[in-house]
Every structure is written in C-alpha cells, then in structure tokens.
Amino acid sequence: MRVLVKGAGVAGLTAAFELATRGAAVTVAETRHSLGGNASWFAGGMLAPWCERESAEQSVLDLGRNAADWWDAATPDQVTRAGTLVVAAPRTAGELDRFASRTSGHRRVDEDEIALLEPDLAGRFRRGLLFPDEAHLDPRQAMAALHHRLAAMGIEFRFGADARLASGFDRRIDCTGMAAVDDRLRGVRGEMLILRTPDISLSRPVRLLHPRFPLYLVPRTDHHFMAGATMIESQSAGRVTARSLMELLGATYTLHPAFGEAEIVETGVGVRPAFPDNLPRVEARESTVAINGLYRHGFLLAPAMARQAAELVFSHDKPLEPANETDRQRPSA
Amino acid sequence: MFELLGTTLPSRLFLGTAQYPSPAILADAVQASGTSVVTVSLRREMAGGRDGEKFWSLIRSLGTRILPNTAGCHSVKEAVTTAKMAREVFGTSWIKLEVIGNHDTLQPDVFGLVEAARILCDDGFAVFPYTTDDLIVAQRLLEAGCKVLMPWCAPIGSALGPVNIPALRSMRGHFPGVPLIVDAGLGRPSHAATVMELGFDAVLLNTAVARAADPVGMARAFGKAVDAGREAFLSGMLEPRDVAVPSTPTIGRAVFS
C-alpha cells in the first residue's frame, strides 16, 4: 500500500513510522524546506501524562502513559527517564496540595530529598512532588533521530513539496496541524525560551507552580534549558511579547536566581492546534485519515494517535470509519 | 428573573470564561450553571489583531449574553482601547471595566477606573465597573454614568469569600436602587449564597469554577447557591437571637424561669 503523509511534525513522523513498520510504502511531504519551524519544534518534550492530568482529561493519561516506551523504541537514547519534580514558592505552597489532589503517580518529597534529586535546588524549596514514572526528550533531537531512522527504512521525504500535487497514493494521512482545513480547530499560542547557564544542572523537568505564572523548565544538553510555556487563546504566531517573556523569566528567576545570569539563546512561538475539548482526534474521510488537535500534548499523544491511524489504514475489509477514541472516553456531562 | 439595564436575565450567576480545561468543558459548565451572562477578556488575545477570533466565536456559540472585560489593563488608555475593540468584536455596548492598580494584588485603580468609566459612559457604553467596596468610589462611578456596580468581596482568584461583610452590607444599604453584582474573590458556593442573602443582585465568578476538579459540577453547585441565596433574601431570614425558641410550643410551664 502506498501512503502519503502530509506534514513532518511530530504527528506526521510518528504516523510514518507506524505505517512503515506495518509494511506500507510511505512518502512524507512537508511544505517547509526542513524539519522544524512547526509547533513540534517549540515543544517542551515532556512525557508527563500524570502531571498533565491536573488540567487534562483521563484519556490524556490513558493515551500517553506508554509514550516514553514508544519513543525509546523508535528513537533509542533520546528518552531520559528521571521523572518530574514539582515545586512551589513558599508563598504559594498551597498550590502543591491542589496539584497533588488532582493528580496521581506522585509522592511527596521533602527538602532533603529535593537536594538529593536536584542538588542545585538544595535549600530553595521545603516540599515538592516527584512523579517518578515520567520522562522527557529533546523534541528537535528526537525529530531528527526519527527522521534519520525513517530515511534509513527507505521512506522518502519530500521537503518544500506541495502535497496537493502528489498522486498515485492509496491513502493520505493529513498531519498538517493548523494548516488543515477544519473549522473546529483553533490555535492556542505558546511562547517559550531557551536559556543557557553553566551554573545550574538539572536532571529532570521541574515545574514551578503558581496560580498565575506557572513554569516548566526542561533540561537539555550543554547547559541549555527550555522554559515554557504560555497558553493564550490566539492563533497569532507573532514574536514573543515582552509581558510573556517577563513572566517566564520571572518564574525562572524564582526557581533559581542564577538563571538571572543565563544567556537567552532563543525565544520561540508555536501555535498548537486544538479541538474544542482539547483532545486529539483520528478521523477518516474517504481515502484520507487525519490526525489533529494534539494541543499541548504532541510528543505525549502522537504515538497513540499514529497507532490508531495506522490501524485504521490497514483495516482493509472495513470501510474507513472514525476512530474517535477520545470522544468515547470523555465522560458525558 | 433578573431585570438588568432593560434586559431580562434568567439567572443571577455570571461566569468568566478563562482557565477552563477546554472550551468544551466551559460550554458544559455554562449549561449546567444556567448562567445567562459570560465575561470574556480581550487584552492579551488581541495582541496580534483578531487572532483570538476562533476562541471568541466559541464564546458566541454558548448562546448567553456576552459581557466583554478589560482584564489585564493597567491604564485608562489601555482599558478604553480594549473596550472599543470589544464592542466591535462582540457587537455589544456592555463592558466590564477593569483598571488594575497593583500587579500583585490585582486590586482596582479606582482613580483610573472613574476616569475610564466617564469616558466610556460618554461614548455610550453600559459600564460594569470592577471596584472595591468603597462607598465614595461607588458614588463617583454612579456620577460618571455607571448604572451598575461590581464590588469585589476579596482579591481576584483568591477564593477567600466575603472578607468584609459589614462593608458589603453598608454598600447594599447605601445604593438600594442600583444593581450590585459581587465580582471577584468567591471561592465556594456558600460564599455566593452569603452575598446573595445580603441582597446583592448577582455574582460573577470564574476561577472557583474553572479550576475546580469538576468545573461542570461546581458550576451547577454555584447556580443552586445563587438561587438559594436570592430566595432566602426575598423570603426574610430570621435574625439570630440569644434565647432558644422551641419549634414545638411547650404548654404548662413557667415562661420566665
């Protein structure tokens, strides 16, 4: 079966992998001239379904709990399994209890254990939560690794290509995110920045809770840190605003004052595609299967969505039907 | 039924639309609460023009009346610009006016508030000013042309509930004919019932519902509490007294023992 995957973001790459391992002849077409520049490029890369459950529905946890295994198998050496540390400043320490009551898969850690986990945060926080089963990766490195793996498997990549002109395919997988023609989609703007400081080392993503300015900080190689991310109901992909930058930097500084001396390596903006329930969908229409609405859960949920899409494509005997798992799992109000 | 500025509203609960887990849950919460007015902010979402359009159209589809707000505005100029933008986007002259005076406590800058209220009232807006429980400020807002007042009962998002009941009672007493809507600081349904029992006309809240573990259930609970508080106010509550009064009369005993 010849399959055209439109879009080389995290949804397209994971779908290409799932299809190719099932024996499809896959071509990936991407309008951009290289990997990156899309929402996936600006992602945090946290594989943190238990933390996300604080504000997301149960299906995000169900669909995302095996994501780290998927990435480990598809892109060896990319996943770091060190959990997530959640802390709050003393003045807003009540947020920790609120967060704990909304989530599972964590245990309380005290000042001494925080110091053992993250020596550079020693003495800064009295209490925290550790989510030991969570993991993280660097989205850009993981996408590059997956791209190489796919290329080695014989998958053709057409960058700078207009997929509308491509012909001769039995199935098309639409993974174009915000570029997809779908009235239900809206953009949720996320602003992030990358800092570099040799003064601090972290082994795992750290979330700093705050009622107004929550922050996550994901360690990357060579003393880099990704700080994110705002959530603004806007499809503007315009440059990061002063206020957002100020809030992110303020929160980073609260986590550790040494970040005040860090270099700002990059600021970035991604517009996340989302459906009204903020849950992803795999839908079939004629010979096209669409994966979309990954919202802020691209790397976490793309593997499960890719698997659903591949199963749908290979369900030969049956006509294509929507596999709308998240709808079924959402309790009706 | 609630008569407000010539409009009949079926509910005395107003809901904010920020911070919900998803627009779908927001829609369910609105439905469950029976609310007839939702507020929506524009300041940050309109940074690039009409880029928040998609979310705004979801808000429009809720089928309630929309009260746009100027949340996040720190100056008269910002607030006035945002109000005008809101009138265009939502086709309503109703505006919840917020001029924030302090970044940390988010308390209103009442001086800027009065000035912005005057400008907007002169421009034909129906201004719902987010204010403190200060009577003189309230008086100035009415003089500026406001027909309704929205006093806080505690700082925005604090969930503290009414921290100064005598001040709220005094406000209700001083402005008997003015619609008073308690805005900001409510944390639980009993808080809403309390201020409704004091005779306030309506309440507006956001965080207490949006950040609840189950926003839909909490929205329904607030809807009931607001109704209960209103009905209690209308029905005339007993004042507390020191003497126990048996609900069943006792006969044949000395009365003054």
TrEMBL record, chain A:
Swiss-Prot/TrEMBL GO biological process terms: D-amino acid metabolic process; thiamine biosynthetic process; thiamine diphosphate biosynthetic process
Enzyme class: oxidoreductase
One term of GO molecular function: D-amino-acid oxidase activity
Reaction equations catalysed: a D-alpha-amino acid + O2 + H2O = a 2-oxocarboxylate + H2O2 + NH4(+)
UniProtKB keywords: FAD, Flavoprotein, Oxidoreductase, Thiamine biosynthesis
Pfam families: DAO
Entries under InterPro entries matching the protein: DAO, FAD-dep_OxRdtase, FAD/NAD-bd_sf, Gly_oxidase_ThiO
Limits of the FAD dependent oxidoreductase domain: 2-312
Needed cofactors: FAD
EC numbers, comma separated: 1.4.3.3
Biochemical pathway: Cofactor biosynthesis; thiamine diphosphate biosynthesis
NCBIfam families noted in UniProt: thiamin_ThiO (TIGR02352)
Family: Belongs to the DAMOX/DASOX family.
Record's protein name: D-amino-acid oxidase
Gene behind the chain: thiO
From TrEMBL, chain B:
Reaction(s) this enzyme catalyzes, per UniProt: [ThiS sulfur-carrier protein]-C-terminal-Gly-aminoethanethioate + 2-iminoacetate + 1-deoxy-D-xylulose 5-phosphate = [ThiS sulfur-carrier protein]-C-terminal Gly-Gly + 2-[(2R,5Z)-2-carboxy-4-methylthiazol-5(2H)-ylidene]ethyl phosphate + 2 H2O + H(+)
Pathway connected to this protein: Cofactor biosynthesis; thiamine diphosphate biosynthesis
GO molecular function, one term: thiazole synthase activity
UniProt keyword annotation of Transferase present: yes
Keywords: Cytoplasm, Schiff base, Thiamine biosynthesis, Transferase
Gene3D superfamilies in alphabetical order: Aldolase class I
InterPro entries: Aldolase_TIM (IPR013785), Thiazole_synthase_ThiG (IPR033983), ThiG (IPR008867)
GO BP, sorted A to Z: thiamine diphosphate biosynthetic process
Compartment(s) where it occurs, according to its Swiss-Prot or TrEMBL record: Cytoplasm
Transferase as UniProt keyword: yes
Residue numbers binding 1-deoxy-D-xylulose 5-phosphate: G157, A184, G185, N206, T207
Catalytic site positions: K96 (schiff-base intermediate with dxp)
E.C. designation(s): 2.8.1.10
Function statement: Catalyzes the rearrangement of 1-deoxy-D-xylulose 5-phosphate (DXP) to produce the thiazole phosphate moiety of thiamine. Sulfur is provided by the thiocarboxylate moiety of the carrier protein ThiS. In vitro, sulfur can be provided by H(2)S.
HAMAP family: ThiG
Family per record: Belongs to the ThiG family.
Oligomeric form and interacting partners: Homotetramer. Forms heterodimers with either ThiH or ThiS.
Protein name stated in the entry: Thiazole synthase
Species per Swiss-Prot/TrEMBL record: Mesorhizobium prunaredense
Gene encoding the protein: thiG
